Amino acid sequence: MQISSAIFHCSAPNLDACPDEFLPEFAFIGRSNVGKSSLLNMLAGEQCLARVSLTPGYTKLINIFTMNKTWRLVDLPGYGFAEGSKGESRRFNKAVAQYLKHRVNLCMVFALIESGLKPQEMDVEFIEWLTRNAVPFVLVFTKADKVTATTAQANIAAFMARIAAWFEQPPAIFTCSAETRQGRQKLLGVIDEAMTAIHAEVNKVPVEPETSQAKLPKTRKRGPDLQRPW
Ligand code: GTP
Ligand code: MG
Fold it and tell me: What's the total number of domains in the chain?
């Protein structure tokens, strides 16, 4: 997949402030500092689209970017960073939970985990939360350039062993590096595949002419909402 345009759309403090639901969204989530914003930039092919920082907890809003005018990438605030004075959760903030649970046009979550670390309780708990809430996700092990392939593979195997019991079919795994661009085409392939499936479904199911977007129920459906005009 080629990226022909990548444009900042808006920053939303919560689900209600998010824009219309007409374009499929692909969101990045993971511990603070795991490399969400960097990965978004790497996929977009633009270094400065989402802000990257050494300071954990840097991304504080739901940042939405429109790609190729047809789908969106969403940079979410991370979990695991306590900023007590503002009442933000050590786990992950309420706005992120609401977005992940209720955003109807959320197609896929990229759940990021640092490949150089042994399984972290917080990540295991978070993956359990995603699973329990039936949020569609793939696992993306980040910063592969910082460790040997052997170390990364051992950490990934240990992580998968921790979560294996929850799935009949384990989630797809990707390894990436924002530094070397490793994994870029494979991750774009996930999006491409999802977009192809959405278009195939949209072509199969006729949209009722009288169905106004405003009247559509706000209940969350997993996968593409066939009544959406995408
Ligand atoms: P928050 O917004 O604070 O939750 O962080 P984030 O997950 O968005 O991480 P961010 O992309 O801001 O990156 C955090 C730090 O890790 C920055 O210093 C990045 O340069 C660095 N980093 C991110 N990805 C990679 C990578 O693939 N390899 C290396 N070596 N460093 C990376
Ligand atoms: Mg960030």
Answer: 1
Q: Considering the domain boundaries, does residue 78 fall inside one?
A: yes
The SS3 of residue 88 is strand
- Residue 165 Cβ inside 6 Å of ligand 1? The answer reads no
Q: Find the 210 Cα to ligand 1 centroid distance in Å.
A: 46
pLDDT, tens only, 55-75: 877 778 999 999 999 999 999
Is 115 close to ligand 1, i.e. is its CB under 6 Å away?
no
Nearest CA to 27 out of 36, 18, 16 is that of 36
What stretches of the chain show up as alpha helix (H) in DSSP? 36-44, 94-102, 121-132, 149-163, 184-204
Q: Give the CATH number for residue 177.
A: 3.40.50.300
Is residue 212 situated within a structural domain?
A: no
Note down the domain range covering 141: 6-202
Tens digit of pLDDT for each residue in 131-180?
Answer: 999 999 999 999 999 999 999 999 999 999 999 999 999 999 999 999 99
